[in-house]
Specification:
The protein is α+β, with helices and mostly antiparallel strands and 510 residues long. α6 packs across α13.
């Protein structure tokens, strides 16, 4: 091929390929989560990656709207899309807004509608290490239930899924947006909030941002508390600052006295949920609507306790805000205690008003999302999940071209016995033994089956465990050397092959 026809293989910044070892581990994890979701009776749903832009915008706040990928509508010209903005398209930034659209579009769905969905979502954020523009979410939602029983159940599902994944110690933390609304009243935060810009801000920076914010933007800032610490949060609540990359972060213009009241709220904490509720009642004793909202948190806490989810797994943490604007009630997120650097691996909350945009009536809903990519990265780092590139449990080597039919018969026999088996389809021959064993080792296939002319005549096969004597095997340059070493192998009658392989896999924990 001429050089001019060669296209450089490359990826857009913030995207990545998932190679077989990563895909296998992801699928294993997803299958485990799916099993837990279905044990509660949730059903699968699929929605397209593309939605009309007006469906996506206006639901999740300004930051989410700014991170949308816009897509050209192939059925409309640029002029038609400019004249009629409802014809513009975008890639979904989460799975909750498409769910709200589905609820409005299919009125005959049963209520409650309890669904799960695992799919890619897209955000045009600035990529960072571990932060991608396409990533996978695994959502679970309950639509049509007003009671906080549904919120309790979502928290319980998250606990059960994390336990099933063997993630080690974890903690689900929960709070309520309605309690945070009381915080705004307690701190005397009123709308509109006028942005303050740090010194050095250019007109271009200011042109990119609206001059005012809603009071609920305080929640978006509080949601950064674990990532940046209180001092950065304080700057963003007040005068703004310039971050390490040089970006100007505008402040919300709150007074120091207001920030101190927010600090007092964030200081309400305790190892026991009852202790947090008691302190919160004392702090908000002067607010007339506080009792009912705090009672809601108390009901969730009591029910979780009755189900066996104690403080070691579920904690009441009032700093939980969740950044998206559509949350209206209880909010929650989960972290791995052995890998706090990965942040939240599960998060969600109640969003009773989201369907209203599409249906014109209020439909209660609550749910959460498991961050597949973040959770997998943490499990791999902590060696709680293995990265194995091959699906095969057995490789049938092909040392003698004259025995090809026998090799295929062996592979078929093992597959019929439920053992995942791959015959080596590369170049056959005794001189290729080193290459074939190297292939099995590279793909992490745990067992190889070997049959040559001598074994065929003797009515036996060799079952070779690949992790025994791997270094010696790689040094074998020919069949004679390999036969002399015979690392990690057993010879069994041909008729006993399936039983021998099953036993070897059992000992390996496969």
């Amino acid at each position: 091929m001429a050089d001019s026809a060669v296209v450089e293989p490359r990826l857009l910044r913030g995207l990545r390929d998932l190679l077989p070892d990563q895909m296998r581990a992801r699928q294993q994890m997803i299958d485990t989560i799916r099993g837990v979701y279905e044990s509660y009776g949730f059903v699968p749903l699929g929605t397209p990656s593309l939605e009309y832009l007006d469906v996506l915008t206006g639901s999740a706040g300004q930051e989410a709207n700014q991170s949308l990928f816009r897509v050209r509508n192939p059925d409309r010209t640029e002029r038609e899309q400019t004249e009629d903005p409802t014809e513009r398209l975008g890639l979904r930034f989460d799975l909750t807004v498409p769910l709200a659209r589905v609820i409005a579009q299919y009125p005959n769905l049963p209520r409650p509608f309890r669904r799960y969905q695992v799919a890619s979502v897209f955000r045009a954020d600035k990529p960072d290490p571990g932060r991608y523009r396409e990533f996978t979410q695994f959502d679970i939602d309950s639509v049509g239930v007003e009671s906080d029983l549904a919120d309790t159940e979502i928290i319980a599902v998250a606990c059960d899924a994390l336990s099933a994944l063997n993630v080690g110690p974890y903690q689900v933390r929960f709070s309520s947006r309605r309690v945070l609304n009381l915080l705004l009243e307690f701190a005397e935060v009123r709308e509109p909030i006028t942005l303050r810009w740090p010194k050095g801000t250019t007109a271009r920076h200011m042109a990119d941002e609206s001059g005012t914010r809603a009071a609920r933007d305080v929640f978006r800032v509080l949601d950064k508390l674990d990532k940046v610490g209180f001092e950065r949060v304080k700057l963003e609540l007040t005068a703004g600052y310039q971050d390490e990359s040089g970006d100007m972060i505008p402040g919300l213009g709150l007074e120091d006295s207001q920030v101190e009241r927010i600090r007092a709220f964030l200081a309400v904490e305790g190892e026991r949920r009852d202790d947090v509720l008691r302190q919160l009642r004392e702090l908000f004793s002067g607010l007339p609507d506080a009792t009912a909202e705090i009672d809601g948190l108390a009901r969730i806490s009591d029910r979780l306790g009755g189900l066996g989810y104690a403080e070691d797994r579920v904690r009441l943490d009032l700093s939980i805000a969740r950044g998206l604007a559509y949350y209206t009630g209880p909010v929650f997120e989960a972290r791995l205690m052995e890998a706090p650097q990965y942040g939240s691996v599960f998060g969600g909350g109640r969003y009773d008003d989201l369907v209203t945009r599409f249906l014109g009536q209020r439909i209660p809903a609550t749910g959460g999302s498991m961050g597949v990519d973040r959770l997998l990265a943490a499990l791999v780092e902590k060696e709680r999940i293995r990265l194995v590139p091959s699906t095969a449990q057995v490789l049938v080597t092909t040392l003698d071209p004259g025995l090809t039919d026998e090799y295929l018969a062996i592979a078929g026999e093992l597959r019929r016995a439920g053992i995942r088996t791959e015959p080596f389809l590369g170049k056959p021959g005794y001189g290729q033994s080193k290459k074939q064993f190297r292939y099995a080792d590279q793909c992490r296939v745990p067992i190889s089956v070997v049959l040559g002319g001598d074994e065929k005549q003797a009515g036996v096969v060799i079952v070779k465990q690949m992790d025994v004597g791997r270094q010696l095997t790689q040094q074998a340059g020919d069949r004679a050397a390999w036969l002399e070493m015979r690392p990690g192998e057993i010879r069994v009658p041909r008729a006993d092959l399936v039983a021998a392989v099953r036993e070897r896999l059992r000992l390996l924990g496969e």
